[in-house]
Amino acid sequence: MTDADERSVRQAEASEPVGVGRRRFLGYVLAASTLTVAAELGEAALAPNEAAAAVPSLPGPAEIYDLNDMLTHATLPTANLITIRVDPDGTASFALPRAEVGQGITTSSAMLIAEELDLPLDRIRITLVDARPELLFNQLTGGSNTTISTFTPIRVAAAVARGRLLKAAASVLGEALQTLTAKAGVITSTVTGKSLTYGELAEKAAAVTTSQEPVTLKDAGDFEVIGTAQRRIDAHEAVTGRKKFAMDLHVPDALPTMVCRPPTINGTVRSVDNLAEVRAMPGITDVVTVSTGVAVRGRTFGQCIDAVRALKVSWGPGSAEGASDATIRDELRRAELPLPSLDLLTKSVDARFTFHFASNSALETNCAIADVREGSAEIWGSLKSPIVAQEQIALKLGLPVSAVKVHVTEGGGSFGRKLFHDAAAEAAEISKAMGKPVKVMWHRTDDFRQGRAHPMATSRVRATYALGNVLTYDQRHTSVATDFGHGLGEIITSEAARLPVGDLTFSETIFALTQQTPYNFGVVTQLLSETDKGFSTGSMRNIYSPNVRCAQELVVDELARRMGKDPYAFRRSFLKEDRARAVLDKVAEVGDWGRSMPAGMAQGIALHPEYHACVAVLAEIDCRPRTTGRKVRDAYTGPRVTKVVCAVDVGLAVNPRGLEAQMMGGIMDGIAITLSSSLHLDNGHFLEGSWDEYFYTRQWNTPPELEILVMPPTTGQPGGAGELGVPATSAAVACAYGRATGTMPTTFPINHDGPLGFEPLPTTPPIPESPTDGLDRAF
Amino acid sequence: MPEHTFILNGERVTVDIEDDVRLLWVLRDVLGVTGPKYGCGLGVCQACTSHINGKAFNPCSVPVKDVGTDDEITTIEGLPATVGKDLHPMQEAWLENDVAQCGYCQPGQIMTAVAKVRQARQEGREINEADLDEIRNVCRCGTYHRIREAIQAGAKKY
């Protein structure tokens, strides 16, 4: 008897009590016209992994119970609302209560269904769920949590469906369940050879009443889909231009709409001098003042750009008037929590690192469609906290929550930006004011200057050492406040995060739940303090970790240097976890750690554990003048990362190919935040206004050599993957830069304090005219 | 309102629109062709990259009046037809290398890739690392390495 048959038998008998065995769960068959199933979680499988902390360091809070555990546990009570439907056309449909913004979760979710349902991947349809308040916490996309929190419930639902289909087939064929096998969407009798497709059985397997069904999930050893490299299920649509993002949707009468925004951060409209004149411009239908500026609606976005530029607006002050990098740096210094006093005889490494403002702007700018009517509203947008969006928009419009429909569209990148619903709220406000549907899109320049930013921060570190040991490690991270107003995806926590005290606690909670020190460094403390709420901020891919861990890994290099140890060997000897040591060893071996390089070039090595996963990165950098002096027009070249080797252990990689993609993206982000990309704050506004000014990694900065190694399964449970690559890379690149130049870098990105690499665009009008010389630049 | 006529993905189209409206908005907002994406409207990010008479260009930076009656505009939607197939070999390479993440920039990346390969061949050579370094298209998901691999693989297909 095969294991699959055995499962069917055990499922049919269903005599064992609930909770027996790690793979045994209860699901639901729901009353519906075609087979529809749902899942309930067994709590044992999702219990947080106990960290095996080594002495002498006590485990930090994040090692025992991290942010991801909190997110997972927050979803438990409502996870049984995850449903899969099997249709007569032989496809299975699953509406994912998460936002797909490029991270590949529609593909990995389809793989989980394919595995337990025994249906080919191309017959599984994944859509994104509209905002559903009853899901409470279970509709937040963040903290690298999607696969961790849905890994079991999606499989349980799929297994229930498979069981129902087998039972229906047994009934139709008049055969015993044990004689049937399910494969590739077809159930076949091993006795008579007769077969039925899932499509033929979909209605027969449907139930008239909702009931519980026990199921046993596949053993990891029997996985045929999970753990195999799969291409994205939406790739064909992406490469043919058919993939629909919010601005590609056609909603009747939702005309292009843009906002003329203030010259300083969060400035306000005092008056508009030429409303009538702008209303009469070609293509323009409406001009109204709203809380964020002056909105214009017209036939094309091009005409909206012209109208925005033509508006003569008198502006009130913003929320960061007069602020600049220097004033914020001083403010952060004043807000730094003290480090423990130092015994004068103890040797120590003392350092202060500065991380400048950075932008989490995606390539798709903030955008949303809104159609607000008398008594109802409909919103379309890529939203990672759609329930918060729905509830707050309802509140603002004075409508019951049930009267506001929020559709989650495919997103053109997020990096934390889409945790907030700024464009959706703005679109709702504008639609209400104009009394018409609107398609609101932010201009690129606004997206950098007025969009949310990763807050500027300092990290002060003191590590003491003696006799070959690190005795203490203290880190005081001081940051411009990070807005966590999206809460855990639900309005109650969202509102709590807005309270002055609650907000601080929430930030500190997030910090405590995410920050950890992977080394045995004696007594370790890592604390956060926040200052200045005048900025529009938000989490940028991996929140605090890229800065906190970059600082820590640089101090590790410095400790190693002072103690006369090799950076790799030093890390290896102080690491707490075997999994961390394994990825470190892997990159050292594959990346040929310690190979000789010309002066001005060097290797750097670093690692990062988080969300039940662990990654190591070995980076090689070229800081020789002939490289840093490369000329590319309107660009920053600088030092080039010539090679990256990355080894990643996420416990269980559902889709190794997708995991590699996430690492690749994280590597490009890590290179950017260490070497080149930041926002310069000057007199109350950010200077960067285009991709030739905000120096995110471009092809000329991309490492020509890149190798990503996915480790074999370790824990058997998927860990977080979406953010992991960023801190390890930013740290490895910083360490490599320090070793290549002989000086530990302390300001990030390293080019921030150099001459500004561009001529800033004016702030009035707030957005530049589109060029007209495109044909001259054709190639 | 002025009329503008040009050839879009093999078909002659005529639109009523002011002269100075950039072609990107004529394509997206008037004609409903949404493959070319908006990423900046400044001729910087290259997300709208399409072809005019076979050469890559940014429709966000060209007033519609500058497009002539017989100019052939090809967007990502019309790329497969230029080789008489369901997919251009470069699109196939994109699929084989699983390049896309969010996918927003990828139509522009593919249109640039096809033009870069053609440009190199006009110079009597195949595309190389230095050519790849010149590509200006932004991918905020950071798919750059797979883009490089896909272009080199795609170029071998035709």
From TrEMBL, chain B:
PANTHER family for the chain: BLR6218 PROTEIN (PTHR44379:SF2), OXIDOREDUCTASE WITH IRON-SULFUR SUBUNIT (PTHR44379)
Residues of the 2Fe-2S ferredoxin-type domain: 2-79
Cited Pfam families: Fer2 (PF00111), Fer2_2 (PF01799)
The keyword rRNA-binding is annotated on this UniProt entry: no
Keyword Hydrolase: no
Signal peptide: none
Key words of the record: 2Fe-2S, Iron, Iron-sulfur, Metal-binding
Annotated source species: Streptomyces carpinensis
Protein name, as recorded: (2Fe-2S)-binding protein
